Amino acid sequence: MVKVLFVCLGNICRSPMAEAVLRHKILERGLTDRIAVDSAGTGDWHIGKAPHEGTRHILDEHGISYENMKARLVSGNDFDDFDYILCMDQSNGENVRKIPGGEEAKLLFFMDLLPEEELREVPDPYFTGNFEQVYQLINAGCEVLLDQIIKDKL
């Protein structure tokens, strides 16, 4: 089983959106028995909460489930458990590095999946309010990521 973890700050906007989108793509391709997805945050403000209303709204618009998703913190165990750990921005990558075991973890940055994009970090819609822009970036990046996983690991 290939395991993917998306990381953002509070685990209510960007990373759960990416988790839901990638899960949806995995389901469409019939790979649910081969690829697992999760998300986590580096801040503890929203632990146990469902995704942000804006994230839920945009996922509903696109017919993508976020059922049973709850915010959680990144833990040291994640570094051993996941094959791919994708951070939504540099700041959260730095925060992950401060977790015991994180200094040696192989981290990827989501926007590296989209080198043609001018943006180098996924904007945080908690502050910008632009959930559609974030969805478009995440949807495109998850397509690239899934193709890469299939090529490299399956």
Automatic annotation (TrEMBL):
Enzyme class: hydrolase
TM region positions: none
Alphabetized UniProt keyword annotations: Hydrolase, Protein phosphatase
Keyword Cytoplasm: no
Gene3D superfamilies, per the entry: 3.40.50.2300
Record-linked InterPro entries: LMW_PTPase, Ptyr_pPase, Ptyr_pPase_sf, Tyr_phospatase_low_mol_wt
Coiled coil: none
CDD domains in UniProt: LMWPTP (cd16343)
SUPFAM superfamilies: Phosphotyrosine protein phosphatases I
Pfam families in alphabetical order: LMWPc
Signal peptide residue numbers: none
Catalytic activity of the protein: O-phospho-L-tyrosyl-[protein] + H2O = L-tyrosyl-[protein] + phosphate
The UniProt record lists the keyword Hydrolase: yes
Chain ranges of the Phosphotyrosine protein phosphatase I domain: 2-148
EC number: 3.1.3.48
The family this protein is said to belong to: Belongs to the low molecular weight phosphotyrosine protein phosphatase family.
Record's protein name: protein-tyrosine-phosphatase
